[in-house]
Amino acid sequence: MEQPLFLAPVFQEKIWGGDKLNTVFGYDLPEGKIGECWAISAHKNGTCHVENGPYKGKKLDELWANNRELFGNAEGDVFPLLTKILDANDDLSVQVHPDDSYGLKHEGELGKTECWYVIDAEEGAEIIYGHHATSREELSQMIEEGRWDDLLRRIKVKKGDFFHVPSGTIHAIGAGIMILETQQSSDTTYRVYDYDRKGDDGQTRELHIKQSVDVTTVPHHDPKLAIKQTNLGNSSITEYVRTPFFNVYEWLISGVTTFKQQANYTLVSVLEGAGHLVLTDGKEEYSYDLAKGSHFILPNQIKSWRLEGDMQLIASEPGEQA
After folding, report:
1. pLDDT per residue over 18-77, tens digit each?
2. Edge-to-edge strands of the sheet including 171-173?
3. Binding residues
4. In the 8-state DSSP scheme, what is residue 261?
5. In angstroms, rounded to a whole number, what is the distance separating the alpha carbons of residues 207 and 292?
6. Mannose-6-phosphate isomerase cupin domain: from which residue to which, for each copy (predicted)?
7. DSSP label at residue 55
8. Is 73 left (phi over 0), alpha (psi -120 to 50) or beta?
9. Which of 180, 186, 187, 311 could form a disulfide with 110 if both were Cys (CB 3.0 to 4.6 A apart)?
10. Burial (0-12, 13-18, 19+ Cβ within 10 Å), 230
């Protein structure tokens, strides 16, 4: 019987990182300011490897290349999704990402639409989400003149908030926020503004003004969220977003809940609690321990599964274009 693919995270040092990936999730972190946990990734800048079963030690990009049956023989040159946990100990740069067309033409990789589930936020914490410019010319002028307070749209956030961040959206995660991010598998970021701070080399970090003006959606429009919640006994499933690239859900498990496959494969992260993933082949049951900070993929051959325990999980699956 096919097993779930449990993955070892890859950690990324960032100028704005902290230590919550250790203190909250218990990860054994390398030295430095660790800002990102690439929890499920086949991207060349941080590829996870499998920790269990017949594919133990294999990297996710290898499985995508050589064992496409695990993913329902889905098409595409690269594994399309990336799950991260971000610990913003300081403000992230104000940034924007291209769409697929611009990203492939100029950077040789996919664009980046993403979404955020706020795991935790200090009181008063804010994100930058969108802008107030009414035309591309006004956007360019406001950036050139450094009118950041006029340009940038700030929103206070709290634990449990969810944001859809399509490509072309100017955005930044503020200090004191921890999020789980589901995104297209891309590492292309155009910095609009970085608070004039200096990196470890004493230099201000590179900005990408021309590209940012090129790809920003003007004027900004908040994408509409059609959040749906379904109760299953004492458990619940919340569908946060459906996009061409990914669909994202929260599974709140209390007791025993059974799921049926809805897509070629499913990505899952445990944010709180503990329990078990139970699979059956009709004769025998196979149980896998789940703990806070576990990340795994349910491959195509697993058509149904059972979750037992008290847990909060975020799950995603490829959308129609992924």
Report:
1. 999 999 999 999 999 999 999 999 999 999 999 999 999 999 999 999 999 999 999 999
2. 152-156, 126-131, 171-173, 94-96, 190-193
3. 97, 114, 171
4. -
5. 36
6. 237-317
7. G
8. left
9. 186
10. exposed
**pLDDT in the model for residue 322:** 77
Q: Tell me if residue 147 is catalytic.
A: no
DSSP letter at 222?
P
Residues 93, 193 contacting (CB under 8 angstroms): yes
Which distant-in-sequence residues (6+ apart) come within 8 Å of 21 by Cβ?
Answer: 11, 27, 29, 34, 37, 85, 87
C-alpha–C-alpha distance, residues 31 and 285, integer Å: 41
Residue found under tokens 């498990």: 253
The CB-side HSE value for 10 (13 A sphere, CA atoms) comes to 17
Average pLDDT over residues 245-257: 98
Burial 13-30 (b: 16+ CB within 10 A, else e): ebbbbbebbeebbebebe
Which helix H or strand E contains 172, and what residues bound it? strand 171-173
Residue positions forming the annotated binding site for Zn(2+): 97, 114, 171
Ordered alpha helix ranges (H), 50-108 = 60-66, 100-106
pLDDT tens digits for 97-136?
999 999 999 999 999 999 999 999 999 999 999 999 999 9
Give the 3-state secondary structure of residue 204. Answer: strand
* Alpha carbon of residue 152 to chain centroid: 23
Residue pair 216/170 in contact by the 8 Å Cβ criterion: yes
* Strand 42-43 with 295-298, pairing: unpaired
Domains of the chain: 5-215 (2.60.120.10), 228-318 (2.60.120.10)
- Please state the separation of Cα 270 from the chain's center in Å: 13
pLDDT tens digit sequence for 172-229:
999 999 999 999 999 999 999 999 888 778 888 899 999 999 999 999 999 999 999 9
